[in-house]
Protein 1
Amino acid sequence: KPRLYSGMQPSADSLQIGNYIGALMQWRDLQEAYDAFFSVVDLHALTQPNDPAELREKTRRTAAQYIAAGIEPARSTLYVQSHVRAHAELAWILSTITGFGEAGRMTQFKDKSQRYGSDATSVGLFTYPVLMAADILLYQTDIVPVGDDQKQHVELTRDLAERFNSRYGQTFRVPMPVIQQETARIYDLQVPTAKMSKSAESDAGVLWLLDDPAKSAKKVMRAVTDSEGSVRYDRENKPGVSNLLVIYAALTGRQIPSIEDEYAGRGYGDFKKGLAEVVVNEFGPVRERALELLADPAELDRVLAANAARADEVADATLASVYDKVGLLRRV
Ligand code: ATP
Ligand code: MG
C-alpha cells in the first residue's frame, strides 16, 4: 500500500471544525487504501507558549479526537510525535540543507511572527516547516492530505527531498500534497476572511468539536453574514454565507447548488437553523466518543505507545540511511 502521512498540533483542548473538514474527514476515508501515519505533533506545538501539564492533556485530547472521528489505531499508525525520536534528529539534518531565505518565505511564519512580534518569535517557529518536512520524509510518504494552508510547507518538503536525493543519492520518496479544493479552507464565523484556527485570538467564530452542542448551535446562529438576505455562494462578496454553505455541504456530502435551492426565498435564520442542526448531529456522537476515550487515559496511553513502536521501526530505518549518507560515523 502507498504511504500517507498527516498530523495536527495539540494546540487547544479541542479541534475546530476546519481541522475536521479540512483533514480528519479525508484521513478517515483514505486509511483503507493507504498505509497511514497520523501524528499528534506535540513538538510543533512547542513553538507556542504552553503550560506543561496542559500540553500533555491537549496531546491526549487530540489523539482521542482522531479516534472519535474514525481513525482506527489498529489499522493506521496513530502516535505522538515526541515518542519517536527520529523526528527531531532528521529535522536537524534537513535544517543544514535548507536556505535561510527559503525558510523566510513561508507565509505561515510571516503571519505568525508578525502577530507575535520579534521578541516572542522563536527560532523554532522559523524552523517549523523543516521539522514538518522531517515528519513526512521519515515515513517514505507518498501523499500528504492537508488543508490548503499547509500547501507551501509540503512544497518545501518536496524541494528538500529532491535536494537531498540529488546531493547524496536516492534516499527519500518525494511526497505529493493532496488538497481538497472545494472544502480546502474553512473560515472564522465572525471574521469570514480569516482561516478558522485553534489558536485564534477570539474563539467567538470558532466551532469546537468538543464544545457543548448547544453552544455550537448558538455560534452558528450568530455567524456574520451580509444584508442581502439570499443564500447563495459568492466567496468575494458574501464570504460569511459562502463559508456556511461550504460547511453545510462538507458535513452533509451535498452539493452547494442543491443547498442554495433548498433555501431559496428563505431568510438566513432558516438557513442557520438548518446548519446548526447539521453541526449538532455530526459532532454530538464524535464528542461523546472522545469523552469516553478520555475517561480511560491509561488505555489511551497504551494504544499510543504501541503505535509509536510501529512508527519507530519505519522512522529509524530512514534515519539510519540518512546518517550514513551525510557521513556521520557509525557508532559500533
Ligand atoms: P493552529 O492555530 O495551532 O495552527 P490549526 O487549527 O491551524 O491550529 P493545525 O494543527 O495547524 O490546526 O492543522 C491541522 C490540520 O487541519 C492541517 O491539515 C490543516 O491544513 C487543517 N486545517 C487547519 N485549519 C483549517 C481550516 N480553517 N480549514 C481547513 N483545514 C484546516
Ligand atoms: Mg495551523
Protein 2
Amino acid sequence: PGAIAFNNVHFAYDPERPILKGVSFEVPAGKTVAIVGPSGAGKSTISRLLYRFYDVQQGSVTIDGQDVREVTQQSLRSVIGMVPQDTVLFNDTIAYNIRYGRPAASAEEVKAAADIAQIGTFITHLPEGFETKVGERGLKLSGGEKQRVAIARTVLKGPPILILDEATSALDTTTEHEIQSALDIVSKNRTTLVIAHRLSTVINADEIIVLRAGEIAERGTHTALIEQG
Ligand code: ADP
Ligand code: ADP
C-alpha cells in the first residue's frame, strides 16, 4: 500500500508567484522516487503538499487513489513518516525522544528501533547540552546521531510511506554515507519520496525527477540522467 500520485499539481504561497506549475508524477507502492533540483525549485513544497501542511490549488495529490484532502490529518500522519533535515530533540533521554508520540510502544520496541538506527547502546543518554534531573551533564549528540534518532522514531512508527526531506544534507560526507545506509534499510519496501539537492545522493532511487522553477525538467534513472549529462 501507499502509492502516491501528484496529478497536474499547481501551488503558490503567494497568488502572484506560482511555485509548482503543473507537476505530475507517481511513486508506485514500495518504490523510491527522488526529487532533485536547485534551491527554491519547490522540492520541499511537494513534501508539504503530501503531508498536507498546505493544500494544492489545482490538480490533486492522492494516496492509493484517494485524494489527501479526503483523509483526516490523523490518518495521514499515521501512514507517513518524515525524516527532516534537522531533528529537534526534547530535553529528555534518547529513548523518550524515540518513543515521542507513541506512548504505547514497549521498551523492547524502542530498543529494537534504536538498534536498527544504531543508537541502541546509548538510549538512556540525554541529547546535546541538556541537564539531567539530577544535574548530570547530557551526552552531546552529533548531527548524524540526531538523524539516527529521527530514523529510530520512523522505524518505531512503521509507516508505509516515508518522506526524506534533505535528511542527510546537513551532514559531512562520511556521516552522510553512514546515515544513507541506515535510510536505505528503513526505506526498503516503503513508498519513499526523497527530497535532495544533489543527484549524487540519490543513486539508488527507482526514478529521479529534476525540478526546476516549479516544473519537471527531466526524469529518469540515475544512470540515464548521467548519460544525458
Ligand atoms: P526547495 O525545497 O526546492 O528549496 P521550497 O519548496 O522550499 O524549495 O520553496 C520554493 C519557493 O517557495 C522558494 O522561493 C521559497 O522561498 C518559497 N516558499 C517556501 N515556503 C514558503 C512559505 N511558507 N511562504 C512563502 N513562500 C515560501
Ligand atoms: P508523528 O510522528 O507522531 O506522526 P507528526 O505527524 O507531528 O508526528 O510529525 C511527523 C514528522 O514530521 C516529525 O518527524 C516532525 O519532525 C515532522 N514535522 C512535524 N511538523 C512539521 C513542520 N511544521 N514542518 C516540518 N516538519 C514537521
